[in-house]
């Protein structure tokens, strides 16, 4: 097991020997096993791993939406036993409300938190402008592309200036070009306010481009097998992922997946025909 520790500064959160087991109809399923993790305030961390390895389970426990079976999650040194209010969450689906305008969707979180919506209207316009949606405030979700909808979801998650932004594969459904632009937008938003960010992604280049650290998880039950520090200066551009340092990190991650048996040629596949010469 690799214990993933904060790189600098005070820890925002700690997972201490956390395991999570779900009770299924047939038998218990352990999603994560004996995971320890320390996250510094203002860090950008990505977690990569095979499907079903417990990445989303970790995110849920960090938000206080579910509790570990064993071990504990602590935020600012206090054990978390209920949903933590200082988070913003973005899922793979944008979950926008179709009957509300773009600005109303961004402000909906404030309304749900029983805040004064009018006090946040300027902040909403500012966030939308930062992600290229100035002038779309009064449009409806059905008038937006997939990438635009996800930008609205990110603005909604940031409207209350959360301590931490939790992202669960938010760009997985987007085409590659839109995804690259979303990575640039997210980097700019993070640099602007430096919230703590934990990103779940299957995209190795995305994780390397955005992160201070990339944590690699094993197959289920998930545990950390590596904690890779990314020292490439910011702001980064799209060419950063082809630098020598990034290529080495990407190769390391792929080697982990090959060793775990989740990346490589599948057995049972017919070998390609061998060309022969007539003698």
Plain-language structure description:
- There is one protein chain.
- This protein has 279 residues and is an alpha/beta fold.
- It has helices spanning 55-62, 102-112, 121-130, 146-158, 176-193, 204-210, 244-259; strands at residues 11-23, 28-40, 44-48, 70-75, 78-79, 87-90, 164-168, 196-200, 213-217, 224-229.
- The strands form 2 sheets. The protein has a 6-stranded mixed sheet, sandwiched between helices.
- Helix 2 runs parallel beside helix 4 (146-158).
- The longest helix is centred in the middle third of the chain and has 18 residues, at 176-193.
- Mean pLDDT is 89; it is low at 275-279.
- It comes from Compostimonas suwonensis.
Task: Summarize this entry quickly.
The protein is α/β, with parallel strands linked by helices and 279 residues long.
Strand numbers in spatial order across the main sheet = 6-7-8-3-9-10
Element order, helices and strands?
EEEHEEEHHHEHEHEEH
Count of distinct strands: 10
Structural class category: alpha/beta
Main beta sheet: 6 strands, mixed
Q: Fraction of residues in helices?
A: 25-40%
End-to-end Cα distance: 57 Å
Keywords: ATP-binding, Nucleotide-binding, Transport
Organism: Compostimonas suwonensis
Pfam family, one: ABC_tran
GO molecular function: ATP binding; ATP hydrolysis activity
Q: What is the element layout, followed by pairings?
A:
Blueprint: E1 11-23, E2 28-40, E3 44-48, H1 55-62, E4 70-75, E5 78-79, E6 87-90, H2 102-112, H3 121-130, H4 146-158, E7 164-168, H5 176-193, E8 196-200, H6 204-210, E9 213-217, E10 224-229, H7 244-259
